[in-house]
Amino acid sequence: MLVLEVKLSGKNWQYEALDEAIRTTNFVRNKALRYWMDNRGVSKNDLQKLCATLAKEFEWAKKLNSQARQAAADRAWMGISRFYQNCQKQKPKKGYPKFKKRGRSVEYKQTGWSLSAERKKITFTDGFQAGTFKLIGTRDLNFYQLEQIKRIRVVKRADGYYCQFLIKVDRSEPQAPTGKAVGIDLGIESFYTDSEGNQIENPRFLRKSEQSLKRLQRQVSRKKKGSNNRKKAINKMARKHLHVSRQRREFAVKIARRLVTSSDVIVYEDLKVCNLVKNHRLAKSISDAAWSMFTDWVDYFAKIHGVHVFAVAPHFTSQDCHQCGKRVEKSLSTRTHKCPNCELVEHRDLNAAKNILARGLGLKNTVGHTGIYTLEETEPLVSSEQSELVKCGH
Which of 38, 42, 178, 261 ranks highest by number of CB atoms within 10 Å? Predict the structure, then answer.
């Protein structure tokens, strides 16, 4: 699925109507979750039937399009099914579904909206009567048929309202073989180091914006709770956080695309970031690096360009000498690998990248990564279509 995002331009009363639709969506989602809590064993179909009951019971809930109400119930079921899966896998954290205090999006399926003939405007036709909005962006929706647009999602952010079009399209861009295989060692000192010795500098977007964020947080704390000035200060701080997240995402997309288009085989370590952030001294830096976002985009672009991607176990990649295999224990502060056996001296990240590449090529024991290529497979094992979020108008 391809996701195209454009900004909605309208009037204040139209934004208020969208806010009401978002609140109603969150209400239906929470009601569906409560129904499941009170009646264990109900199915997804039972939650969708509940939507019709809510429309009869609450007059304002009936304003929301029927398929949008079903989509809200689907959101509740996604959390429920994920909880069941975690229980079956006996994970320590089951992820019990929780109520949401605030929602930020409403999703429509095939009804409740219509596009203008030139595909530059969208009109919402449900009971909230939000009216017609201009679509601000550079992407041209005329390239796709209306039948290909399976869903649209209205998302509220700190700097406005956005409309996401979920388009069913198969994207494939085969590239000429480069004959290059690289291993990638993700890190904090450098964003990553490859097996050829190339390093990408860690941008540290959050660290660079930390002083501005602290100043904005102090301004929020000084304002009286419930006042308009406090709301303005909160919005200003939220815009700054949004800017940092967009910087981080744009960097991950750019670097992932560059890496995929210049390689035939990519090997990276299958890091468990949720465990790594338990180290409170490094948690902020690890989160700021966004390794998971980067590897997700590598997987996505690899599928498009036909590049093989392997994820290998990260154990002892920094400790083992890639030349002789001897294990040399070292702390995180030790940045140079010095092997007493073969007298090899090089940067520890470069040594780790070479070990990762060796594992990915089958020279050492490997572990397959769910959803991408494994060593025994020549076809991708993607169970569901990955989606690309293309930002427009920024």
Answer: 42
Q: Amino acid identity, residue 230?
A: R
3-state secondary structure of 150: strand
Task: Say how far residue 15 (Cα) sits from the centre of its chain.
Answer: 26
Digit-coded pLDDT (tens) for 62-85 = 999 999 999 999 999 999 999 999
Q: Find the DSSP H helices in the chain.
A: 12-38, 44-57, 66-88, 205-208, 210-222, 228-261, 273-276, 283-289, 291-305, 348-360
Angstrom distance (rounded) from CA 109 to CA 394: 26
- 384 φ, ψ (degrees, to nearest 5): -135, 150
Pick from 382, 361, 374: which is nearest to 172 by CA?
382
pLDDT, tens only, 282-338? 899 999 999 999 999 999 999 999 899 989 988 888 888 888 888 888 888 888 888
| Residues forming a β-bridge with 336 | 347
Please give the structure tokens belonging to residue 192.
């990553």
Residue 235: helix, strand or coil by DSSP?
Answer: helix
Distance CA 356, CA 167 (A): 36
- Going by pLDDT thresholds of 50, 70 and 90, the confidence category of residue 139 is confident
What is the C-alpha to C-alpha distance for residues 341 and 129, in angstroms, rounded to an integer? 75
User: Within 10 A of 382 (CB to CB), how many other CB atoms are there?
Assistant: 14
* Residue in this structure with the two tokens 């569906």, named with its chain if needed: 32
Strands 160-167 and 149-157: antiparallel
Gyration radius from the chain CA atoms: 24
